[in-house]
Structure formats: C-alpha cells, structure tokens
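seq:
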Amino acid sequence: GKVIIDITVDREGRVVKAEPRSNPSIRDNQIYVYAVTAASRTLFNRDMDAPALQIGTIHYTFIPQ
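struct:
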C-alpha cells in the first residue's frame, strides 16, 4: 500500500514533525509506524537562508512479500 507522511523540516534539514495521512487500504497499523520512523530519520540539505520551517510530504510504497 501507499503511505503519505506529512513532514515539517527545519533549516538544518532535520524532520521535526512527521504525521501519516490515513489510507483505508492499509490494514496493518505497523506500516504507519515504519513510515513515520523512516521519515523522521530522513535528512535534507541544510539551508540557513530557507524559511524556519518547511512543509512537505514523503510517499512510501510498501510491497507485500
């Protein structure tokens, strides 16, 4: 299934907030935990001239094994 995580990133490139969007086709809540953990560990390029906080999304596609 596809999981979309709303993220907020600071000037240092760190994800300071990660929240999953609901997807009715995802039945296993552990998928959301994996996606939020991965998003929280993501680092972006540092830019001290950027806005203090930037909002975006990360899309993950989980494939059943």
